[in-house]
C-alpha cells in the first residue's frame, strides 16, 4: 500500500532540496517536516520607522496646503495617504488628542472633515517637524490650541515666503 505524504509538493521530492534553490531561505533542522524560515532581506528593517526616516519629506505640510480639499468627508485611508502615515497612527492620534474627533458612520468608519484635517496638520507639525513628545504636544494644544494653530499658520506662511525667495534666487 502506498502512503500519501500531505506535506510534500508534487514534483519536489524533498523540501530541503527545494529550499536550497530558493534564495534567502533557511531550513530548520530537527523536524521531520523541515519547516522553512525566511531570513530577512538585506537592507530591510522590520518594525516601526524612526523619526529620521520620516524626516525625509520635510515639505509634506507644504504639499498638503496645495491639495484642494473639495470633499466634505474623507476616509481614514485617504487622510493617511495625505500624511504618508499608517491608518493605525491616525487612530492613535485620535485617541490621544481630544481636539481630533472625526465623525463615525453607523458602520463605525471614521469620516474626517476639513477641520479634522487641519487639526491633524497641527498635530503632525508638532510631533514630526517640531519633535514634540505626545505629552508635550497634548500640553501645547491644551494650553491654547488656537495659539498653536496660529503659530503653525505663521510658520507655514514663512516657509512659503522662503520657498518663493529661494526660487527667485535660483532664477538670478
From TrEMBL:
Residues 73-128 form the HTH merR-type domain. Coiled coil: none annotated. Pfam families: MerR_1 (PF13411). Keywords: DNA-binding. The keyword DNA-binding applies. One of its GO terms (molecular function) is DNA binding. It comes from the Bacteria. This is DNA-binding transcriptional regulator, MerR family. The lineage of its organism: Bacteria, Pseudomonadati, Bacteroidota, Chitinophagia, Chitinophagales.
